[in-house]
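Work package 3, deliverable 3.1, input record:
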Amino acid sequence: MINQILRPLSGLFELLAGLATTLMMMHILAGVILRVVFDVSLLGTVAIVSYFYMVTMVFAGIFVVSWRQEHIRVDIVAELLPVPLRRITDSMAELASLVFFFIFTYGLTYSALQKTAVHERVDAVFSYLTVWPLRWVAVAGVGLAMLVSLWHLYHLVINGQLPAAAREDRADDQELQP
Amino acid sequence: MTPEMIGLYGGVLLLVLLAIRAPIGVALGLSGVAGLFALRGVTATFSAVGSITYDFIANWELTSVPMFLLMGAVVYHSGLATSLFRAARAWLSFLPGGLAISTNLASAGFAAASGSSVAMTGAMARLAIPEMLRAGYEKGLAAGSVASAGTLGALIPPSIPFIIYGVFVQESIGKLLLAGLLPGLLTMFCYSVLILVRVKLKPELAPRTHDQVEMKEKLRLLARAWPIPVMVLGVVGGLYSGSVTATETGAFGAGVAIIASIADRSFSWRMFRNSILETLRMTSAIFLIAMGAVIFTRFLTLSHVTVLIGTLVSDYSLSLPVFLVFVSIFFLILGMFLDPVGLMLISLPILQPITSRLGVDMIWFGVIMVKYIEIGLLTPPIGLNLFVTSAALGREFPFERIVKGTAWFLCAEAVVMILIMSFPQISLFIPGLSGP
């Protein structure tokens, strides 16, 4: 059930973060060309890139990376352990992720509520930009990463291994490599 | 319980979480959160976790990381790296060990268009090793030259570790990126000399190839790699002049790579999509670690552990040479087990109070640190470049041969490290000449 929600959401967030990455590159490039070639400044680039594209890309990306089980880990000790013990340590690692993402989501929500109440804005030179909605993108990204950890933990405890859905997504992508 | 003791317990919790294979970012973040709970209580912790991480990410200087990753991803997926290797091969295959030296030079060129060592090693392993094996090269030499040349990616600008280091120690990112240029070229030179000397002494390691490439063909291959010099000029020239930021040079490089792929007819939406997705995944994975490190650093500062370390340095009159020996041992051991960015971000909060107490130049120290974390990519059991090379070659290629072949290059690294530590000007000369 949770898989049927998380999988399409992962695709949606991947699209959102991908769009943010593409727009970031195009926006900065346009700013450089305008400044170097035409001596015209593209006002607000720093604020827009830092608060809109960067926040969307990183926090939406955290959910995507969690879903695809692509976080960077240290394998050396765990690989030396016998399989039954490894299942326990894997479950503990997933529990640690769940607890951290829960606290992280709570902290981001706490901060987002405060900034929403004051209608957070930043100085973008030409005007003030409303940036508080981006706080909720961060909450959504990390909150969904927390759900992924919960789902992984459930699979580890019940089936003794991580779910296959993310591995299938990764395999699909590898077929696209040059 | 004293804050210092809480700080030490936080360090122990971090090691336990790393050992059970929690993601590095989670291990750092959770240890930091637990420590902050103990020191400051629940409300202050939630407030800190929500605000410091978000403010850290909404940061213009860090936006250079995805831009440089995108530049490298487009160069790889568009086949530009292949053109570069073919050009280097056509011009250098007459030398003893010419294919290995070509790999080295092509890696340096690719390094100027990519900030990630691991991505670069993966690309060069698939390109260069099959060519070397077909030419009868000894397996260890072929794999070792690729695995070690991959480390040039983090030294020759652009470099992701330098950007993250710069943000954490609040040093000029432009100057740090320029500081890696000469050490990177010095490393490339030492690797090439090593290959040349080994093959001269033992010619069977690398039989001469009898490629007869006409001058016209050589020039044609060189012309196909045109975007690389344009990118180098854009990135290094832009940083040197100080007229553009690191982020802008990254976006410029990514733009040049895309235009080049369109001109070369290698552009496709699938290639573009893959480059974008690879960029966002790598960026998010790196920044989760960085956010964890931000929380952990805040905790260590509040626990006064950093002050304690500084006091210990004063009490024991730690000198710079002794500190450098300590740092070398520290990084060589931890580098065997930890991923490069993780290693840097775990060790910075501990080492920074010592460097500031000793008055160490943080740009020079940044070069030493990045060199060591890159050497960690070549040392078993967790040398990532060894695994990436192995993964690109398949199971039939023995892992031990890769390790043995790389060991020779570690000897060259020892020479480079002694030079960098003895002559800080190797790192500081170019940044000293550049603009503000």
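The first strand of chain A starts at residue 121 and ends at 123.
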